[in-house]
């Protein structure tokens, strides 16, 4: 009975924080399922890709890879470029997930940009179990994407409309999350450093190759900042 009450409180605390993710994933996941269906892959493939791979933007790229001649090196390079950011923000979660218990492998497996933005910036309310709160944030975000993409696959053959521009939902979602963290945070150094690093590397390396260099530059800047700044910098990234 105690555990049931604990999980209920954690769920009620986590769910409101995931509502912006639900909105974005509902549209974007559905669009992904539609695109998979129109490319000749049924709903079971949308479900398997979303539940096993669970890599958002890379899943859209994978549609092109699946419908193109087999090129493993190109697929590897594309996956590395698109998902390299996971290496950086994954490392930053080591302390956050320390001592979290048996659910840690699951939390690592389903960690995505949107879940990271919530878990990294939100603390469980007083009286709410930390592990349960992080679990429900992660599980809800994961479920939104899997369900939406599966529904898109199921209805893909019945619904015909132009999906051009739907992928902008994810960009809009990131902007909303960024602004919320900016307004809540007191120290905007890490956010400003992230913007500056991205702009500099975009100018130097171009739109197709700036992600990894900007991540490396930001890592160097924040490492230097943490070393010489007394106190913790803001988590707003």
Number of domains: 2
* Helix content estimate: over 70%
The largest β sheet comes out as: none
Beta fraction: under 5%
- Enumerate how many helices there are, as a single number: 11
Task: Count all strands and give the number.
Answer: 0
* SS-based class: mainly alpha
Our Rg estimate from Cα atoms comes to 19 Å
**First-to-last CA distance:** 39 Å
Query: Uncertain regions: pLDDT < 50 for 5+ in a row?
Result: 232-237
Transmembrane segments: 12-32, 44-63, 75-94, 131-154, 166-183, 195-225
Family: Belongs to the AzlC family.
InterPro entries: Brnchd-chn_aa_trnsp_permease (IPR011606)
Membrane topology: Multi-pass membrane protein
In short:
The protein is mainly alpha-helical. It is 72% helix and 0% strand.
